[in-house]
Amino acid sequence: MTETLAIHGGTPVRTQPFGPSHEFGDEDIAALAEVVHSGNLGRGEQVTRFEEAWAARHGMQHAVTVNSGTSAMHTCVAAINPDPGDEIIVTPWTSGGSIIGMMLHNVVPIFADIDDTYNIDPEDVERKITPRTRAIMAVHLFGNPCDMDALRAIADRHGLFLIEDCAQAHLAEYQGQIVGTMGDISGCSFGGKHLSAGMGGAVLTDNEVLWERALLFRDVALPRGDGPYAGRPYANYFLAPNYKINDLIAAVLLTQLPKVEEYVACKIRAAHQLIDLLADVPEIVPQRVRPGNRHSYWTMGFTLDTERLRCTAWEYAEAVQAEGISPVSGPYIGTGKFGPLYRNPFLAEPNCYGRSRFPFDYGRERPVDYRLVKCPNGEALMGRGILLSMRLFTEEEVAGIARAMRKVAAHYREG
What we know:
Elements: H1 26-38, H2 45-58, E1 62-66, H3 69-80, E2 87-90, H4 100-104, E3 108-111, H5 122-127, E4 133-139, H6 148-158, E5 161-165, E6 173-174, E7 177-178, E8 185-189, E9 201-205, H7 208-217, H8 247-256, H9 260-277, E10 284-286, E11 299-304, H10 306-309, H11 313-322, E12 328-329, H12 345-348, H13 376-382, E13 385-389, H14 395-414
Helix pairs in contact: 1-8, 2-8, 3-7, 9-14
């Protein structure tokens, strides 16, 4: 006989709130106070120091800070300078922030299916290449690295740029190499991720041409004294937004940067502990990690055998939440009316530039119609997914999460 679920009036597994996701303290306050007392609240010394430190941590020549992960990915797209109607192949299981910059740059996202790593399938990427393809975007979802060797080979074979979206993947590694260092250019987010100042992002590249354009793009393409157009007459040299961060944000990033290694290590320990505790529950399968890779676990994903459990992923997640496990949620933009990105209204209707179908009809006999797009493997897989938002969990907290997940699984299995 299984225990009565909390959602049905039973005693919840946990009643105490979970601990923090980051450790903010006096050192962060002191760093902010120093900037305020300096009187320089704009982009200054702290921004430069952080850019140098972030580039060095990745072994890269250049880091360009911006004000969000969405801005970082837009800057990556802008750096390759695509023409209107060009295509970039990407996964539909990602934040809209991965592709919003594409459409602001009049680029058409083309969606490839995923495999059981929850990441883009290189074989489907190759099938989606057309004469208008300009780049491939590798999104390391939840902190799990994509198959970078395969994607790099495809990009090189077809003469395409390879962009990495590392927003959720700080310090993740592909075969011993840190993500963000294998593409031509990469972007990351500091808005609540492993390294967080509540906002911000950065672009990394070793390519001098891409760096110059990225640096100008984040600052309305003005010829600043420390930039590649220094000395030119003061003017906006191409269409570009203002995506700069300031020294207040950079100061917090600098105080948080030394803590990130332990944040990631703590989350990896917790993830491995949870996997071990659930190893004998065959209906709960963790996101597959390729041998030799390091998943940094910004989020932990599982796929449910919903037939054996006789419940949906949403029902399962709701029951686990009722057990006091608030960091658990249902499918990640999984299925249903608003599921993968190609079902979101801004693409499906579309609702981008007034009542037009631009850029999806630009230079095409037939507009791209996202209502016709299907990625069957991903829809079947992600529609059965549940997520655990990772925090600095203790061993006791992980044991409670595992107990709640086992309790709910047992109920639905026998119900």
